[in-house]
Design a protein that fits this description.
The chain contains six helices and two strands. A two-stranded antiparallel sheet has the order 1-2. With 133 residues, it is mostly helical. The chain is 47% helix and 6% strand. Helix 1 packs across helix 4. A hairpin with a 5-residue loop joins strand 1 and strand 2.
Amino acid sequence: MLLTKECDYGLRIIRALGDGEKKTVKVICEQEFVPYKYAYKILKKLQKAGLVNNKLGPDGGYISAKPLTDFSLYDVVNAVDERLFITECLRSDNDCPRNTESAPCKVHKELTRLQALLIAEVKSKSIAEVMGQ
């Protein structure tokens, strides 16, 4: 499973905001050991996906846009990364000479099946369930 460091940090950020309290980037980074250089970029992606909201100004900060029961690990991964893949082989832009229409690759077929199972599992629980809430 190709989970990037950014994805890991995105999950940590969501965990930090899981209590429903508004938090500054500094507090999020200190609480979850997320480097500042990644935090703003990831928060922007989470905000674009509708998972967090940002309040500007001196009393500003970030807050979860909806209850943790309303989205899954998949939603966070999909917001931060373009898509969850177990291998680069499954990317639509990957032209593998061993997997053609006239000669489909049996390994590719099995990896596609496993990919579908992985995505179904990652979607199966809400963030709240994962966190035991």
